[in-house]
Amino acid sequence: MKITALAGGVGGAKLLVGLAALDDVELTAIVNTADDARIYGVHVSPDVDICTYWLAGIADEERGWGIAGDTFHVVDALRALGEDTWFSLGDRDFATCIHRTDRLDRGVPLHRVTRDIAVSLGVTASVLPMSDDEVRTRIVTPDGRTLDFQEYFVKERQEPEVAEVLFAGIAAATPAPGVLTAIAEADRVVVCPSNPVVSIGPILALAGVRDALRAHRDVAAVSPIVRGRALKGPADRMLASVGARVSAAGVASLYADFVTRFVIDETDAGEAPPVEELGLAVQTVDTIMTDRRASRRLARALAA
Amino acid sequence: MKITALAGGVGGAKLLVGLAALDDVELTAIVNTADDARIYGVHVSPDVDICTYWLAGIADEERGWGIAGDTFHVVDALRALGEDTWFSLGDRDFATCIHRTDRLDRGVPLHRVTRDIAVSLGVTASVLPMSDDEVRTRIVTPDGRTLDFQEYFVKERQEPEVAEVLFAGIAAATPAPGVLTAIAEADRVVVCPSNPVVSIGPILALAGVRDALRAHRDVAAVSPIVRGRALKGPADRMLASVGARVSAAGVASLYADFVTRFVIDETDAGEAPPVEELGLAVQTVDTIMTDRRASRRLARALAA
Known about the structure:
2 copies of one chain form a homodimer.
Chain A: E1 2-7, H1 10-20, E2 26-31, E3 37-39, E4 42-44, H2 46-56, H3 73-80, H4 91-105, H5 110-120, E5 126-129, E6 136-140, E7 146-148, H6 149-155, E8 164-168, H7 179-184, E9 188-191, H8 200-205, H9 209-214, E10 219-222, E11 225-226, E12 229-230, H10 235-241, H11 248-255, E13 261-265, H12 272-277, E14 281-285, H13 292-303
Parallel strand pairs in A: 1-2, 1-9, 2-5, 9-10, 10-13, 13-14
Antiparallel strand pairs in A: 3-4, 6-7, 6-8, 11-12
């Protein structure tokens, strides 16, 4: 079956690995690019690279980002040259970014570059950036500061309170070629357990995506919130900032207009009634992807 | 004494190291940038970096370029991503280029970036790129091909015959701030034993430089040609291409209008009469810089 998955960083990548491992699944991943940035003059695409590296089997799974066994000579040398190296990047990871930047600057669109990198690394799933256009998440703090997403996420370690989340450029951006088709032609769409506000949110905000999902009759989403907390990252605090309840049902409420099946963790059964009240079918399984076996198990439940 | 030296790659760098080691010398190096290029999207500045790394004591002196003990993970990863990696660059060397490119793209002029890199690496001599403007050496072959200098020098290993050497952009370029002053205010100007055509040639071709040298009463040049051959690189074949004799005297004839003293190797004493015929004082010493001691010895002879 054809599965098209919407994904962000590590949580999404783990589920993509599980889905890609299923023999009967042909997988397309649509990945958030609103946390892309130019850092050290190169185009970093953290969510796309995390998903690609995990699918290629070269990810540093311990650390969650970058390439296993990578060295850090470039960033160490940049520090010696006086740069503020708050954004770490391994040498091989740097090569990905240098290569991407060079091709983008020559006019090759991001979806082509992204595809070619994935193919070069041996990824058989299709990896699609959500858009070729520049969409950039900005975090507004209660004291009125506006931070680029990576500044908030990496430099300030997600410590500032989030008053508002903006997607700069979203109004003018269109989905990358292939995105709407991948949704329309999928037998099933899967929304990965990624941050609903800053990972899935930008994809949904792209012109035509939400409509394409509403028009689809088989859209499953996995809750990234289990027992009122994010498994990873600041999703729980961000949900509160956007006025959603910090619970599986809170996430479901953000997706209720297009999701047909909502997957919650088996330890979170109390969330089933409020999700059902939203008119969604509830599937209760073990959603915690501690290893590849767990990822495959969750993927199988979603493909069933 | 204040010495200002004009330099290209390895031959120049070795003499700079010797000059910088002299207690009573305050050294400014004016370095060729006409072999700069954008490769992998980053601004490589081979002559400037060679000189800087040698002066910093971190050069790979065996190989002649790059940083001693550098690794090559980035370029290996670029190759894995499908890039044609004919231009090798170590990881720390890549960091220099990434840093330079990022600052240039933010509008910082090359001479500032170059100075800051040198200072960060602990270089006490002043390293000045010849120009902030883009001057690019192109090699025209007898069959009419035009090659970028690095294509000729690295990719095609200096194998093509050279019919003509062009400096694209030279007419619009001006010397970097500090260049003309460094010449005018020097007690002595030294032209290093670098390639007269493609290393020293572009510096001399910049508006005002040759006039500033002619106005100076103490300009010494060291022949890069010993016994009719270049110590390194294609200088001998290039001299022939531009119609100069391939000899120390041939080099002297290119510099005769501004040099007051011409230094030839002690094994090349037969060159003294033709150089003297050009009206230049001849100094005969051991010019072969096999190690730092030899560089210092030649430097002392030049500072004397």
